[in-house]
Amino acid sequence: MDLERRFVILGLSSSTLLTACETLDPAILEGLGGLGGLTQADAALGIKAALNNGIGHAVGTVGVFDGFWRNGEIQVPLPKTLRDVQSALKVVGADGILNELHQQLNRGAEKAAPIAKDIFVDAITSLTITDAINIVRGPDNAATNYLQKSTGSRLASLFMPIMENALGQTGALRLLDDVTSDLRNIPFAPQLGADARRDLIAHGVNYGLGGLFKYIAVEEKAIRDNPAKRTSEILRRVFGAY
């Protein structure tokens, strides 16, 4: 089932559930009075729609060729150990393989980003009524912060095999193995540890997810600031209410 249909179904089921709960918490209902009379269902569905838009925007921005590599704000650097090796080899004009590895690391992040889209769905569906109200009232990146905190290490764990596969496809892992092998034959050269592969994958996950969250936040702020970005009735209702 594609992501858009899943959100429609989730939206309908959430609306039914939240409508049924609206009379159960007077304190929450009173809090909604300062949000232009929004219902609890409005708040929850609006935040889910904003996050859905933000995820789509982020994947469309970074999950393309050169999405990371040519973007100075989110380009994935080599891990520090490899940067040190790169600097040492540059002195003798032998850093070409590290330069290629750097590029292919970013290609891996570009390949992995679109696959992350479905991983976010569970976090969005677990949004509570109280979370939704606090997010609507919160700062420009409140929804993004919620998504980031609620996924945490679980998201990173799920993303690890995706990144490993992407780095394998781009040749980054093969290049790392070549660098590790070559360094053994260079006297006094820095040596890479046995966990070099795992460290590179984890590094790619950290920066890959960071790039995605950065652009989810960009879209969230745009929805809050710019009425033209509120492309559905629920977005107009929720983010035009405060």
Structure explained in plain terms:
The chain has helices at residues 3-21, 26-32, 40-62, 80-90, 96-112, 119-125, 129-137, 142-170, 172-183, 196-225, 233-239. It is mainly α and 242 residues long. It has one domain. It is elongated, with a radius of gyration of 22 Å. The two termini are 35 Å apart.
In short:
The protein is mostly helical. It has helices spanning 3-21, 26-32, 40-62, 80-90, 96-112, 119-125, 129-137, 142-170, 172-183, 196-225, 233-239.
Please render the helix and strand layout as text.
Layout: H1 3-21, H2 26-32, H3 40-62, H4 80-90, H5 96-112, H6 119-125, H7 129-137, H8 142-170, H9 172-183, H10 196-225, H11 233-239
Helix pairs in contact: 1-3, 3-7, 3-10, 3-11, 5-8, 5-9, 5-10, 6-8, 8-10
